[in-house]
Design goal:
Order of helices and strands: HEEEHHEHEHEHHEHEHHEHEH
Helix content: 40-55%
CATH class of the largest domain: Alpha Beta
Structural class: alpha/beta
Radius of gyration: 22 Å
Length: 319
Amino acid sequence: MPDTRRSFLHSTAALAAGVSGAAALMAQAPGRGGLPGGQQPPATPPRPASEVQVPKMKFGKYEVSRLICGCNPFYGYAHFNQTLGTVMREYYTAELIRDVLHQCNRFGINTFNYFPGSSRALPDFEAFLAEGGQMHLIVQGIGDPAAVVKTLKPMAIYHHGENTDRVFQNGQMETVREWCKTVRGMGVMVGVGTHKPEVIQLVEEQGWDVDFYAGCVYNRTRTQEEWKKVFNGELVEMQGECYLQSDPARMYKVMRATTKPCFAFKILAAGRVANVDQAFRTAYESIKPADGVFIGLFPRVKDEVRENAERVHKILVGA
């Protein structure tokens, strides 16, 4: 992290702690409203560190922020090209990952879309918790979910989207259904992730015992034959990172049709969308009040946590 930004964050935290401590001392001083015998005044609920707080929604027995911190940029999953992925990995030190998660907390973002695929993920998150950070976890489930459930006791876990799509394309969705049954037995909320609206439609039609869906609004897992149909027989480079402008409307329509909570992701097409404000507005106006959005954060140039929190607050609260 640049020294100037680190110093700013640390000095801001120190200032807040100093002001809080001074106020407590003033309250205890004679003639300043302190209680006899040095007694402490009644505790009051802590005020948020920022007046701008991302609105919450009910998710099972929890209250979660409708904007949820994504994890892809932390570990270089850029979904753009290898160069950007390398830049992200080099930028995101363990310290900076913790700083961004703490910044999320300050703006009321209390939920993290955790991915166990990186060897750094667990120690980074545990270090954040050790510093007093708090996050509900919605885990991207890969392989046997038992280890991550035992270690982190997440709020929810869903079958990883790309894995779901491959199984769907191979006509083996029953294996995903069995995986969901296994997770259900572990006592956490269970969901299905996908990049394909038709996957959610299938699960709904078959009445699976799941709690939620995580849907990429761009169908980036089309087969080669499907891409040929899209491009009139032609193929483009990096087919898996192609983002069609007509895709989001299809995913949003399916999300609105289900009564289960849904989480939309890649609403900015992995950084390809030029009008960010409009993409956020389209997302929240297209999903249900009980739905949320996963968003990746890469504040190398600007404070994306603040900007995105303010966008969502303005869209949902109107101020």
